[in-house]
Amino acid sequence: MKSVKNDLVGSNVPRGYPSFIRIARSMHTGCLAGRLSLACVFFVVLAILVISTDVRATEGGGSHYPGGNEDFQVGALPPPGMYFMNYLMYYTADKLKDNAGRTVPADFSLNATVEAMRFIYVTKKKLFGADVAWHVIVPVAYQHVSVEGAGSQSKTGLADIEFSPFVLGWHFNKNWHLTACVDIMAPSGAYDKGDLSNIGRNYWTFNPIVAFSYIHNKGFEVSAKFLYLINTVNSATGYTSGQEFIVDYLVGQRIGNWSIGINGAYYKQITDDSARNEPPDFDGNKGQFFSIGPALQYNYKNMCFNAKYQMDTSVKNRPEGQKFWLKFFYAF
């Protein structure tokens, strides 16, 4: 194989600010600490914190999927065989945005490093004209969180594992490619409702995915991956994160063994969060963001090397930060 075919996250605060910030501030006077799953990789990293008398984790600012994970040829499943992908992501943020997209006046910082190993096997079987495959992602993460009025904490360990036993990939011709599956994010990561920093989400997520790639004969490419995350209840807190719609996108051009492009993600929470014993002013914590940045890839024999940067914009009810990615792909 001469070229890689696939590149398989209170009482003294005004109403309208994110619920997790209001609760954190209220703790200062005496009162939920706070989605690599990387695509298919976790982003517990954004599982921001904070605190109430009987609950110590809020999922209001987090997700199992960070967004912007995938890029070049994401819809093109590779030929039958075994493949390995490695994702290394660094995320940093020092701003929190409220429901109107305003910066919350709080001392806050979040720094996280995620190392995720992905194993992909494409079988020789066909179903509905598609190749059949499976994959699993095993992430390990370091996360440091600091929130005014709640303190700071660091944690390192296994994060939430993601897998799909059934992936379908169609190649309609040499230009158009489509992949579909349902990924499952399992609550395997370290979690304690009393901790400020958690690298596990403590709930299951079911994630239907459709990805396509259009690759012109002269190397121009448009690729996108569409996800819809359906989250179950966090049994430790009684908190259920709303359903999430995410699109990873890329517009790029291949030049020899190199590919360059613009890449990022669009994230929109579709349904409200719900919580046990919701306060009267609970606003549902619907989050959103749009990220954008450059992407660069180099193909060499049976390997692929990828680097990209993404900056968050149009953020609501989430941290506003930056992601730095290094990815490696190997075909056995």
Written description of the protein model:
- The structure is a single chain.
- The chain is mostly beta strands and 332 residues long.
- It has one domain: Lipocalin (Beta Barrel).
- The chain is built from one helix and 17 strands.
- It has one helix at residues 19-27, and strands spanning 37-38, 41-42, 81-96, 108-127, 130-147, 151-158, 162-171, 176-185, 205-215, 220-231, 233-234, 239-240, 244-255, 258-269, 288-300, 303-316, 319-331.
- Strands 3-4-5-7-8-9-10-13-14-15-16-17 form a twelve-stranded antiparallel barrel. The chain has a two-stranded antiparallel ribbon with strand order 1-2. A two-stranded antiparallel sheet has the order 11-12.
- A hairpin with a 4-residue loop joins strand 9 and strand 10 (220-231).
